[in-house]
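Subgroup meeting minutes
Present: P.N., E.W., G.H.
Scribe: E.W.

1. P.N. recapped why we're keeping a running log of single-chain structure predictions: easier to compare across weeks, and new members can see raw inputs and outputs side by side.
2. G.H. added today's entry (351 aa).
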Amino acid sequence: MSPSPTPSPSPLLDWRVRFGALALIWGFSFLFIKVGTEGFAPFQVTFGRLLFGTAVLAVAIVVKRDRLPRGAHVWGHLAVAAFLLNALPFSLFAYAELTIPSTLAGICNATTPLWGMLLSLVALSEDRPTRVRAAGLGIGFIGVLTVLGAWQGFSGLDVTGTALALLASFSYAVGWIYVRRTLSGTGASNLSLAGSQVGLATLQLAVVTPLFTSVPDSIELMPLLSVIALGALGTGYAMLLQYGVVAEVGPTTAAMVTYFIPVIATTAGVALLDERLTWNTPVGALVVLAGAALTQTRRPRSRTVVGNRSAGAEQVGTTDGAPAVVGNRSAGAERVGTTDPRPAGARGSRA
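Output recorded in log:
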């Protein structure tokens, strides 16, 4: 008689507590970026963020005795994913927050599901939108125009900074589609793919940063602590939190964190950075989130049972580079929502 499998130990903290911590970490990421850029160049903020995030994930890989992905083609795809989901959007957000408030950056980040659905019209022929999802796309972009104050001719708005933040969110959407097409079914664990991806992004910034920045004359404490928190918490530990929450309660519930991030980012910016808030910003943000939620709806699909698992993953949409794991598969997460398994790092950090 074979021994019964040993049950996995229960988490020390209830999943709701970890869910709340995850929302807070990702929501505060935009504040950390803002404070970080007060003492460091944007590329330096991004490099530090990736470096500390890689350190946390590397420790987790060693502790779990996980193995890194194998195959040159896998590493090639991971390098592209690292650029689209980490190096590029992280840098764009850092540059954007030189001229726009962290509240606006957090709201721009919430547009990723809208960009993802728009891109799916071209890139994912099997993922055609329903009328409800199409309506969500339209509602979402009306929300964007509301946030930006389009009826005022975008008066007082820094166009370049806003465009950079929106481009960062667009990069997330492109990256997730790329990962869905190239990195599903590699056989590597979610954690090892995420750690490898963030590590490659760190190497990319290690090459770029010295070319465009110089060493600061002095290092101030608060910007330094912000960069450390941004990397260790927002890019490293948050992935591990999301990894556990999804494994425990499923990707759909875990993806709800997406809708708390702009709320927390706005609250933090107003309360701690004294950023100015006009009525159209929170109203537009709510419209954006409503549209994003509608774009994540799906028609019921038949499920084919294979062994003890059913094929057809749930679609979710989270915002940061967070892992969404079901069994040994990754489920779509962060702000886009896809049906195929994706690696943890594919969700990029929402920040």
